[in-house]
Specification:
With about 450 residues, the chain is mostly helical. It has 2 domains: about 400 residues, Growth Hormone, Chain: A (Up-down Bundle), CATH 1.20.1250.20; about 50 residues. About 80% of the residues lie in helices and about 0% in strands. The protein is built from 19 helices and no strands. The protein is globular and about 60 Å long. The two termini are about 35 Å apart.
Length: about 450
Amino acid sequence: MNVALPSIRRDLGASVSGLQWVVDAYTVVLAALLMLAGSTADRVGRRRTFQVGLAVFTIGSLLCGMAGSLGLLVAFRALQAVGGSMLNPVAMSIITNTFVDPRARARAVGVWGGVVGVSMGLGPVVGGALVESVGWRSVFWINVPIGLAAIALTAAFVPESRAARARRIDPVGQVLVAGAAGCLTYAIIESPSAGSTSARVLVPAVLAVLAVIGLIRYEPRRDEPLLDLSFFRSVPFSAATLTAVAAFGAFAGLLFLSTMYLQTVRGLSPLLAGLYTLPMAAMLVVAAPVSGRVVGARGARLPLLVAGIGITAAGLMLTRLTDHTATSYLLLAFLVFGLGFGAVNAPITNAAVSGMPRAQAGVAAGVASTSRQVGSALGVAVMGSVVVARGGTVPSEFATASLPGWWIVVGCGLVILGLGWWATTPAARDRADRIAEAFGESAPRGDRPTESTP
């Protein structure tokens, strides 16, 4: 959808902040509902929840393609996200409960992570071709036949499963999670136009802080909380969560800024803008499945270090971006970023379920998926707002205004590098084992982190 943003802007008369909401209406709602979807799937059935999610996502996509105003598009994107929230964490829960052997599960997670990486890499290319040939609405309409096919294939091939004892619904926790994500994103996006000291920004910012405090105080008192904070006592799990925020924040922010740069500054068509990301897509195709195999065979340290180095290096290269940067240099930066981002998904996913009780796999996977979407929402919100605040709404000023955004990418890469090393130390392994015992389970041999595995 990112390559469609300039076309949406022209057709619907949207501002840059409006485009941020087209992206973040989806990611914020998705982040708010992922953990609820995971626990719901554990309770009512994973296949059933997955199919309902596909149906809602398909309907939302159809309506997005028919939207006649920016407000309607944002609203239908939120509906689309309601369905999307039932897909990724439930898919991971299905994998976890289908492949019970730890090594087979690691390989399956690697394949799943590879498919996610490939789809994210190819998205801009496919989107560019659709926007140029049919129009921006086609990037939503294409989901309709895919969604219908997925519903049928799920019915035919996916076994039904549910937790022996699923958690009860936690409405207070759900409201607090949604409030924290929504208020924080709103404050960031609106701050350039409203001013950081205005009530329109300060009120939602304070509400976001209060929601987080409420979660920290309220959730431990519940027997079956929406967000089990004890998960975060595991160093590898906490590190994987923060890594996901940093990696997906860098990825979403890069796509948002580079799409605007390529089409508004360089004057490229949507198709050409999508083709510029082919090196990134190619590296995702190669790196994602390789990373999954390395995680299964040797642990997560090497993929995480490669991810941190690749994202940091790409960010540093993009800090030199100008209106006339050589195409070869830009393509090389995208290729390096693709290598780093392609390596990160499999170790994040594996850490999300390793050492956690299998009966609560939906909740654990939901936390990991939520961290990805929180990162994506913050990446678009922060980097887009930085550009707006520095006058980047004028094409001639965009490259200069986007410089802090590329330094943010560098910072994300350094965070991934540090966390990747810290989370794969012997001390982190021992901590994960103690958390597994606290859950009343001994981590299976294949689940236990090796010297280089979180």
